[in-house]
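Worked example

This section walks through a single chain of length 418. The input is the sequence exactly as stored; nothing has been trimmed or padded.
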Amino acid sequence: MKQQKAPWQYLLTIILAGESAFILPFVLARIFRPTVLDVFGLDNVQLGLCFSVYGIVALLSYLFGGPLADKYPPRKLIAVALWMTALGGLVYATFPSYSVLRILYGYWGFTTIFLFWAPMIKATRVWGGANSQGRAFGFLDGGRGLVGALFGAMGVFIFSLFIASEISEASIIERRVAFQYVILVSTTIVILVGLLVWFFMKMDHKAEQEIILEKITITQVKEVLRLPSVGLLMIIILCAYVGYKITDVFSLYAQDVMQYDQVQSASVGTFLLFIRPVVGVIIGIVADRSQTTFWLLLGFIISFFGALLFATGLVSESSTAMFFISILIVAIGVYAIRTLYFAVMESGKIPLLLTGTAVGLISLIGFTPDIFAGPAMGYLLDNSPGVEGHKHVFWMLAVFSLIGSMAAWIYYRLYRRV
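Given that input, the structure is written out below as tokens.
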């Protein structure tokens, strides 16, 4: 692949956009899961089904949005996607009914994927060039983690600012008002990030034209599908994304098992977000200097053993230190995998010009956990309340980590010399 030149502000705006797009549909629910359940009047299964609606719409969006990223400049697609996502935030802030909430998540499945996902991956790959894919995706995922952590810290601060009484005694009305401010501030920031992308995520016109195809043909799609790396990445990303979705329950685990209040539980979710940038940047740099495919495999192994700590019941209310150590182990594994699964596209011989098409096809299978992971976790949690339900969720993580490690091992054997 020809080395592409793009300035640092190009990557910085990708990073800002990369997490801002998902703040409203996912990050707030991850950090404030107990609060979201209360103020929207939902149980875990219902919230999971909202994520499923998102996933179903996203599935089609991956397929048709991927080739779009190979035909138009990423800057314009990403900016429009952010502004459309922010419009949904205004609806979210009205605390709509469950039926409207499902429609809203379907809308977000379109705005955050069809115009956004493949352009973000392609733009990052362009910035990384031929020799810095690990660093590029490490900075992307690490930077996204930092942005998410800052959003989380800001959200917790705003939420606590508008709770006049003790959090354990706060009424549902007080919590709803406080969370509304969190949503509205987050929505405003998403709009501003869209403006930054539009004005600052620019490349030289000639370089921009070199990464765009006038027409995507069926032959080119078949060419991509024939690559062994594409099939393996479908499995790797599917397993990795289940792991990432399961990190959503850490704040709920803090409340249900560790007996934390809602602010303390949200702080656990924020702590998790601060781990992500550190892991992303370090693993990206290390992977570029050795074998990216090896570190991908190692991430799955770490995730597997971290899942066992929770699944076997070693983490209990009386072991605070063990709780945070176990979170750290799972997070290192999950975030390392997340950093690297697109970074290995270069070693897997996927052409740069067809990155968007490849990402769309891979994501069609790889991100199906958006459909089934939420309801599956909700079912396990609601049918076995307390610690037992959480154990079942982490056994789910262990199984998918094991399957992912097998696919990563094959990928490593095929492409380790590249």
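What to look for: The domain at 8-415 is CATH 1.20.1250.20 (Growth Hormone; Chain: A;).
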